[in-house]
Fold each of these.
Amino acid sequence: MIREILATVVIFLASSASAIAQTPLEFEQIATFDQPWAMAVLPQGGFLVTEKAGRLAYVSATGEVRTIEGAPSVTVDGQVGLHDVALAPDFETSGLVYLTWVDGTNGGALHLGRGRLDLAGPRLDDLQIIWRAEPMGGSGHPGAMIAFGPDGHLFVTSGDRQLGDPAQVLGDGRGKILRLMADGAPASGNPFPNAPEVWTSGHRNPYGLTFDGTGRLWSHEMGPRGGDELNMIVVGQNYGWPLVSEGRQYSGRAIPNHASRPEFTPPLLEWTPIIAPAGMIYYDGLVFPEWQGSLLLGGLASQALVRVEISGNTAREVDRWDIGHRIRDVATDVDGQVYLLEDGSNARLLRLIRGN
Ligand SMILES: [Ca+2]
């Protein structure tokens, strides 16, 4: 077990004028992984971590890593493979764990499944597929983030699979955010009778999804060339992709912006140049009280941890820490500790420590 304090030098990037002192950070390494994608903190201590190639790992509170048997078979190609892991709201009594992954031919489809975790194995028993994006197909942009609402509903982001147009087709499972029952059935009260699982549409590649302390749902998504977005997710709204964006096509071709089409909901915050957001939590913990009420986002291309203050219907970036590694996921626990999961090979799971 490696548990040394890494004397990483943290560089503070300029941010917008803010009265809040920026917190110096150091990092404690807990474990390392190969192309990890997401993590969940276990209530008894320790973590579940997914790796893109299909491994589901259990990390004990002391940093010992073991493979959990019973993970699904996945199609590993480019951006896709095994993705998010989330605990059921009643995990402590049910043991239920939710996973997302891509599997199938011609690019496959995003799948959502759940199984019962037996840490004595460790193994995942009775894994069942409870939702699958239809139709199949595409390449990257899985989305695949899971969040549970305060009332127990299950929300999932489904990326556009780099196809764009499906995001505007209600009957197509791609480019949407879904609201489901815990068993994967469409939730009652969803807005579109002919697309019963859909909550919102017009999404590109949402890699972050979280509720805030007042029960509002937030998601971020990567823009094309520029135009990463932070969106407040409101029932029935269309977020505009691929018809509007604050970014450009990779070819350089312009895309109309959100203001040109008021029927589409604009982002509350956009990043050009991009940060390539991945992972997001709402932070209300005691370890970093100066961050309470903020969103913390990981950054891939930006190799950063980004803090966004949300207030009413506004959001603004207030802190950005250059971590020096691509960040794939962010998590917190009941004590208010904050954890980062790096991207790529030999990627570290880190605990944040207040620096000097
Ligand atoms: Ca948008």
Amino acid sequence: MKILTFDIEEWFHILDNDSTKTEMEWSNYEYRIHDNMERIFKILEKSGVSASFFVMGWMAEKFPEIIREIVDKGYEIGSHTHLHQLVYEQSPKEFKLDVERSTKTLEDISGQKVRFFRAPGFSITEQNLWAFEILHELGIEIDCSVFPAGRAHGGLKSYGTAEPSILRYNGIQLKELPINTHSILGKQFIYSGGGYFRLLPYSLIKYWSENDPYIMSYIHPRDLDPGQPMIKGLSLPRKFKSYVGIKKAEMKLTNWLSDFEFVDIKTADQIIDWKLVKIVNL
Ligand SMILES: [Zn+2]
């Protein structure tokens, strides 16, 4: 099963960087989301594929027309928090208020219940597992925040499985659709979204995709936008990670969607026999 998801944020929502950290900094940058959403909708229409969208509440508040368009086209919306902060930098109270604000905003505009969640930068780690309890409390049924490998920000390496699973923590449970990994000689590689998807050649992505039964993708509008300005002052590695491969990403995504069958989260949820999946006790 291959699942198609997008994380809907602006091109300047770059984590762990001072000049793009809060609303105050964001006001310095132009908005590019309308053109970028049109690009995504066109790709989906051309490919005849449905997708799920994790949207920042802040984006919904600013551009409610985008939420309406996503819903009108029949796609489902999940939360990507309100203000796109790293969860491990928030207190439980801050995280709860932020997610709650996003689900309220998204539900008011979309008229749909928010059932899915993905943390910015996959920033639920071994140190802030309490976030899962809060998600459960706020009515989230399916979490997609687990990145079961090491990474610059976040990641939950100890999760131990890169497949649909039931996550149990402190008496609660959530359905978990983690990011998939491709294993080579015991080392885990990620290729289904962000900089990894942009960096790797399509021939390799295709080859790995043929061999991996489960894929969870995570594409951002900015991954597909070659016209976006360069954020000033990024370190060289961040600059590389943020801008590598953007020109070819749209073509790669189009090829990926035509070479393989992708479904949205709602369909995946119906197909998966949750009674048979692995249970992960954290
Ligand atoms: Zn994000």
